[in-house]
Design a protein that fits this description.
The chain has about 45 residues and is of the alpha+beta class. Helices cover about 40% and strands about 25% of the residues. It contains two helices and four strands; from the N terminus they run ββββαα. Helix 1 packs across helix 2 (about 40-45).
Amino acid sequence: MQFVGQDADGNWIHNRSHDIDRCIYMDVLCEFIAKTQPKEWAKYI
């Protein structure tokens, strides 16, 4: 994950898609599954 700075309220801004309710970066999860399980990922998409 790369942080790209802070907003006016001091919150960190980053370039990843964070799902606060699930406490996970969904794009990171999808990238991981696509790289480690390409056959299963192909079925999903």
